[in-house]
Amino acid sequence: MENGWANPPFSFLPQVIAHVTSYSCDITLFAPRWQHQSWWALATRHCALWVQRNPPYPTLTVAGRTGFSPPPVWRVVIFRF
After folding, report:
1. 13 by DSSP, 3-state: which?
2. Of 2, 54, 42, which Cα lies nearest the Cα of 26?
3. Is the peptide bond before 56 cis (omega within 30 degrees of 0)?
4. pLDDT confidence of residue 57
5. DSSP symbol at 14
6. What is the DSSP letter of 80?
7. Average pLDDT value for the chain
8. pTM over 0.70
9. CA distances from 18 to 3, 55, 74 (A)
């Protein structure tokens, strides 16, 4: 079996996780650690393993922000289905 890699736009995470959990997929999925999102419980329940990468490892930020406030930073989680 081959392993797929996915780093979808955050707005697509509910659909991607629903698809992965409905079908037999071998996939490694990168996502922000957003525990209060609707897809989080489904992902953690159905994945074989998940790992959080803390800084100094890569974090996700919003590009193109202007102003004096720092951009939001999210911890990266890697799910293995």
Report:
1. helix
2. 2
3. yes
4. 47
5. H
6. E
7. 85
8. yes
9. 18, 29, 22
Q: How large is the average pLDDT for residues 17-31?
A: 93
Query: How many Å apart are CA 5 and CA 31, to the nearest integer?
Result: 11
The rounded distance, in Å, linking the Cα atoms of 25 and 36 is 24
Tokens of 58: 């890569």
Handedness of CA 59, 20, 16, 1 (dihedral sign): positive
**pLDDT tops 80 at residue 66:** no
Which has more pLDDT, 53 or 7?
7
Q: How far apart are the first and last CA of the chain?
A: 13
Q: What is the DSSP string of 38-64?
A: HHHHHHHHH-SEEEEEPTTS--EE-TT
Number of Cβ within a 10 Å radius of residue 20: 21
